[in-house]
Amino acid sequence: MDQINGSVVTEFVLLGLAQSLGMQFFLFVFFSLFYVGIILGNLFIVFTVIFDSHLHFPMYILLANLSLIDLGLSSTTVPRMISDLFSDCKIISFHNCMIQMFFIHVMGGVEMVLLIAMAYDRYTAICKPLHYLTIMNPKVCMLLVVVAWIIGVIHAVSQFLFVINLPFCGPNNMGSFYCDFPRVMKLACMDTYRLEFVVTANSGFISVGTFFFLIMSYIFVLVTVRKRSSNDLSKAFFTLSAHIMVVVLFFVPCMFLYVWPFPTKSLDNFFSIVDFVVTPILNPVIYTLRNRDMKAAMRRLIRQVVSSREMA
């Protein structure tokens, strides 16, 4: 790969999140507990949806896929964040850096499309309840998931092809605890202003546009419900509030990371940690605690597991 793009840089230096031993230990415990929570929480949702026939509906199938994506997105960075905390030499190879960037943007692109699909699912369920099962049938649901993966891969490849061929001949300090396209491009031995604009347009402007589109779509649903019956407004708002919270948690850090014109390292690290550590653990909490069907299904699954162990 180095020979293809003419690079002499074979590795990049990552930024440490803490200098003092006390802060390193605190972050180690914080990240470790959150990552365990991310794994258990998201896998619990996936297995609950798979094994409980009451949840074999588009909303929960999309939720299970969102949980898998959250787990994958977190796994691209958090394990390395934890291992690098007590390491004096925070080095990532050129190949591993490219792989990390690629999968971050695949997962991010898929999650973006899944959130749009979930918004469409809620719009159909609330505004067209009599036609819901006809419109959101299993084939359409699976098609939305497949389209999400295709768009996610296209989103990542469209940026990856630009970066992989850049010449890297000198500076290799990433200035962050993980690899991402804008940071890697700044280390190239050429003027990358136009390419940085392409990345900003691809990740930043699309994030902003999708965010406002989703918020406006939820507002449209609430206005439609209010016109039909003001009594149903509180119920619709309760249903959509969980989706709105997840949309805000996902898109606000993305907008700051890719659109904010004057980022600082502390602010950049904060929003990155929110994206990779906080959001993936909050999503299952938000969707399960505010959904009676999910809570009932989880209780049934727990009872089945307990009863099977007692029989064994």
Could you walk me through the main structural features you see in this protein, from its secondary elements to its overall organization?
The protein is mostly helical and 312 residues long. 76% of the residues lie in helices and 2% in strands. It has a two-stranded antiparallel sheet. Helix 2 packs parallel to helix 11 and helix 2 packs across helix 12. The protein is globular. The termini are far apart. 36% of the residues are buried.
SSE map:
Blueprint: H1 2-5, E1 11-13, H2 21-51, H3 58-75, H4 78-84, E2 91-93, H5 94-127, H6 132-135, H7 138-164, H8 181-186, H9 193-228, H10 233-258, H11 265-289, H12 292-311
Antiparallel strand pairs: 1-2
Helix pairs in contact: 2-3, 2-4, 2-11, 2-12, 3-5, 3-11, 5-7, 5-9, 5-10, 9-10, 10-11
Care to give the gist of this entry?
With 312 residues, the chain is mainly alpha-helical.
What are the defining features of this structure?
312 residues, mainly alpha, two-stranded antiparallel sheet, 2 strands
Strand order of the largest sheet: 1-2
Q: Distance between termini?
A: 53 Å
Total of helices: 12
Strand/helix succession: HEHHHEHHHHHHHH
> Helix/strand-derived class?
mainly alpha
- The overall pLDDT average reads 87
Quaternary class: single chain
Helix content estimate:
over 70%
Shape designation:
globular
Low-confidence stretches: none
Report on the biggest sheet: 2 strands, antiparallel
User: In what range is the share of β-strand residues?
Assistant: under 5%
What is the number of E strands? 2
The rounded Rg comes to: 21 Å
